[in-house]
Specification:
By secondary structure, the protein is mainly alpha-helical. The protein is built from two helices and no strands. Helix 1 packs across helix 2.
Length: 158
């Protein structure tokens, strides 16, 4: 069986304690510091990300409100434009009807004037023909007398 030496065990334990203290001072402590710094950086990045997310959500909410407001304004403007266009259409329709009535009345008046002028011209031509026929029949009777008599007769019939 192997011999166990007290001094050997003691030196081994002392070596282990020294090794443990050295590792704790030179390895574990710096590694913990590095881990702590990284944790702080991660926490700061998480806080910054949360703040950015909150700001983005606020901006999105503001943008949604602006879009809704713009949409409402657009609808209002379109409604007003439609109403104005309808009013303008009705106004133009009334004006067109009024102008049509005026044109119709003017055409009727013009037609009546033409009718009277044609009747008058026809009366003169008929009078001339009657005067010519009468002159041939009666001889030398004055044409103007016959014409005047015919016109007087025509005026009495009106």
């Amino acid at each position: 069986m192997p011999e166990i030496d007290f001094w050997s065990i003691l030196f081994t334990v002392i070596n282990l304690v020294i090794l443990f203290v050295a590792m704790k001072i030179f390895l574990f402590k710096p590694v913990r510091n590095i881990i702590a710094k990284r944790q702080e950086e991660a926490d700061a990045a998480a806080k910054e990300a949360a703040a950015s997310k909150a700001e983005a959500e606020q901006r999105k909410a503001d943008l949604d409100k602006a879009v809704a407001k713009t949409e409402a304004e657009r609808e209002k403007i379109l409604s007003e434009a439609r109403k104005q266009a309808d009013d303008e259409y009705q106004k133009m329709l009334v004006e067109a009807r009024s102008e049509a009535e005026i044109i119709k009345k003017e055409a009727s008046t013009e037609g009546e004037k033409r009718k009277q002028r044609i009747i008058s011209e026809a009366g003169k031509e008929i009078g001339d023909m009657i005067a010519a026929a009468t002159t041939k029949i009666l001889g030398n009777v004055e044409e103007s007398e016959l014409y005047d008599a015919f016109l007087n007769t025509m005026e009495d019939k009106k």
